[in-house]
Amino acid sequence: MSELTTMTAADLSAALRSKDVSATEVTQAHLDRIAEVDGRVHAFLHVAAEEALAAAEQVDSRRAAGAELGPLAGVPVALKDVFTTIDMPTTAGSRILNQWRPPYDATITTRLRRAGAIILGKTNMDEFAMGSSTENSAFGPTRNPWDLSRVPGGSSGGSAASVAAYEAPLAIGTDTGGSIRQPAAVCGITGMKPTYGGNSRYGLIAFASSLDTPGPLARTVLDAALLQEAISGHDPMDATSIDEAAPPVVAAARQADVAGLRIGVVTELSGEGYQPGVLSRFSQAVELLESLGAKVTEVSCPHFRYALPAYYLIAPSECSSNLARFDAMRYGLRVGDDGTRSAEEVMSLTREAGFGAEVKRRIMLGTYALSSGYYEAYYGKAQQVRTLIARDFEAAFGQVDVLVSPTTPTTAFPLGERTDDPMAMYLADLCTIPSNLAGNAAISVPCGLAPEDGLPVGLQVMTPVLADDRAYRVAAAAEAAFTERWGHPLLASAKGLDGASGLDADDTKGAGR
Ligand code: GLN
Hints:
16 helices
């Protein structure tokens, strides 16, 4: 593995600007790494080698012509396959969009290109971002680089795995109920769900529009901030985009301190059903923050226990409406159009063949929740619960500056373990969903490995709406303290690096560690 693939985006950026390396070299090193390991990890659905090298050459010639390079110029990024890209397929992990070529770039895609970032390709995901393990992809699962027999989380599992396996220093994911933070936690990296409306949804294939939030994944908090700063900010093409200056997250990540900060531990987000090693690492993490000068108290958010059921009415309701556009006429797959069938029959055959089981379950749940006679009892009630959860956050942030919890109740689970049990799968997002319903910012940062299985644990830091910078400041301080205490197994600069997590350590064992 080339040293260039173990460097952080911040270090790569510095090396590119001081002309120690070229963007072409950096890009080639990551493409080589993908060729070496992605047959086993399957983080990518599409690798855009030619386009990436062409983009890298442009950065190199701009640099040669004396242009000042921006912070992401020449730095590779992996893009979740739910953002449209004019020069690459976009599938959202679904058969129904297999071979579809979008006619335009998503705003996130455009901003990455403008920043000079090198898009390496499109990453695997649960179909239409519905899932917590990437096993709902129509194109086969992604595997966790720490242990190839386990899931990388989801739905941005391909993005998280690509970063953990050193195939990319940075990746973009989307978080509707936890799909950035949960895979980041179980892959041992940092993932951030920005404030809803902070990052544009234009060109993001919609799952649940009132919840969907694009955001960064990276091996360090500073890297995540660099990526977020490059993509965030108002977009007139997205009606829910916040028309205000984006929070200064890079400066906050560099600031990295918690002295005097009031931290609230959410009572409802721990206890029964949580893995013991996750809870022990979490309490050690909180103690470490306290030793840095933070004031820790316990805070109750009594309605958080209703977040999961409310989410599983609201998200499927929005999905049933959003996915109506896949009608066999406008995009992608068309089945049975042989001249003898009505449009309705073709639509029904196409949706039957094109959507996977989980997507169909969501469409049925959502259609039911929105149907006349049930609307008030289900969708209406869930919206009321959503308001109560937002009020819990408001009350809590009247007492403390940030809230913390484990990011996920367990570490990465084995492939196949939850595929037949949707409830067990949904529980992976127990801690992350409240922030989606309320729209506030939340970040996951690695806090060591669970003693019982040696797999990564994530600490979640939640902040008020538009206080994304505070999340980065706390996460960066936490990262520094945790790295000193437990090492950072994915950072060459920390002592723990054993080569692409479990992936290169001992290949003779087959499935990872
Ligand atoms: N796992 C949750 C779901 O299946 C969240 C997914 C997401 O955030 N995109 O809906």
